[in-house]
Amino acid sequence: MRAVRAIARREFAAYFGSPTAYVLLAVYLTLSGYFFYSDVAFFVTFGAQVLETGLWRYVFIDFRLVTLLVLPLVTMRLFAEERKLGTIELLWTLPVRDYQLILGKFLAAWGFFLVTLVLAMIPFAVFYVYHPFALGPPTAGFLGLLLLGTAFIACGLAASTLTENQVVAAMVTYGILVFFWFMTWNEAVGSEWIVRVLLLLSLFDHYYSFATGSIQTADLAYFALFTLFFLYAGLRSLQSRAWRGVV
């Protein structure tokens, strides 16, 4: 695992060695802070009583949108930049296996997102000082957000292995994630069993229980499988160079 740690450290340092990372961090924190303030103001104005359904649900649903907006821009460079600069061939000549490249870059992006989430907790801490609340529901919400972001990162990493164009990688990621979001929006046109299948596959329906403070085993398993599937897809994409005749 030494190679994985080395790659992760290199990529993580590269994130914070670029102004793009700070811009994305600022965008995420600004939008999440705005949504938190707006949701708290709405909660107080209309006199809601239940935090889980009157505040936390809306906060974490809004945070979901911010995460969807920002993370594909974080992952788009992981392999696309290496291809464009020609350094991917250099990596292939090193004594590093493809799965180590995948895991190292994945952990670097995941670490960046973890830092972002920790900073996004600051408004919650300030709110807690003035209005103490049960920590369980928002903890479940942040766990769901972490799992959702992990799934986004795996998907974005896989997309980044397909092209040397970072914009294309980001758009492919957006397309896949939006599909998994919208797939249950037309449930009225399908039969009952089709709707059940779509609900099982829907990325954001599995996130909803976390947003309301509930942790379900089935949802945990879904995010784990979703993440592993796209990490494997990214690995197979890298390994495709063998039959394409690329060293």
Secondary-structure blueprint:
Layout: H1 2-16, H2 19-45, H3 51-75, H4 80-85, H5 87-93, H6 98-120, H7 122-130, H8 136-160, H9 166-182, H10 192-201, H11 203-211, H12 217-239, H13 241-244
Helix pairs in contact: 1-6, 2-3, 3-8, 3-9, 6-8, 6-12, 8-9, 8-11, 8-12, 11-12
Short summary:
With 247 residues, the protein is mainly α. It has helices spanning 2-16, 19-45, 51-75, 80-85, 87-93, 98-120, 122-130, 136-160, 166-182, 192-201, 203-211, 217-239, 241-244. It has one domain (2-239).
List low-confidence stretches. Answer: none
Gross geometry: globular
| Number of separate strands | 0
Give the assembly state of these chains: single chain
Q: Look at the structure and give the mean pLDDT.
A: 84
Order of helices and strands: HHHHHHHHHHHHH
Instruction: Give the count of structural domains.
Output: 1
Number of helices: 13
